[in-house]
Amino acid sequence: VQLQASGGGLVQAGGSLRLSCAASGLPFNRYNMGWFRQAAGQERQLVAAISRSGDTTMYGDSVKDRFTISRDNAKNTVYLHMNILKPEDTAVYYCWRTGNIWGQGTLVTVSS
């Protein structure tokens, strides 16, 4: 089982990024997926999660109405569309699968 996250980078406040997480070695559509983030000196926190079929989503309070999680089961990929980015969104973003499976993380830096 492997989760490969990509799409992080440096962006100015108010900008957008899209993170991708490609999964291999598992029946992708059997699992809920999500994104967590961890800023320097802080605990890892839930950003968003999505059900197996994609019809149910949930978001952390700080990203509601700005971020959107989606998945393409045909491509074994989950996405995080991030809009109106703020400096406080700066963190390492981790892809996650139920069963405590984690990707390697991708750094998002938002400059003010």
Structure description:
It is a single chain. This protein is mostly beta strands and 112 residues long. Helices cover 0% and strands 53% of the residues. The strands form 2 sheets. Strands 2, 4, 5, 6, 9, 10 and 11 form a 7-stranded mixed sheet that branches. A 4-stranded antiparallel sheet has the order 1-3-8-7, with no helix packed on it. It is globular. The mean pLDDT is 96.
Quick summary:
The protein has strands at residues 2-6, 9-12, 17-24, 33-38, 45-50, 57-59, 67-72, 77-82, 91-97, 101-102, 106-111.
- Percent of residues in beta strands? over 45%
Distinct helical segment count: 0
Q: What sort of overall outline do the alpha carbons produce when their principal axes are compared?
A: globular
- Please give the share of residues in helix: under 10%
Helix and strand run: EEEEEEEEEEE
Distance between the termini: 37 Å
Can you summarize the main beta sheet? 7 strands, mixed
The value of Rg in angstroms is 13 Å
* Overall pLDDT level: 96
* Weakly predicted, low-confidence segments: none
Structural class: mainly beta
- How many extended strands? 11
List the helices and strands and how they pair.
Blueprint: E1 2-6, E2 9-12, E3 17-24, E4 33-38, E5 45-50, E6 57-59, E7 67-72, E8 77-82, E9 91-97, E10 101-102, E11 106-111
Index terms:
112 residues; 53% strand; mainly beta
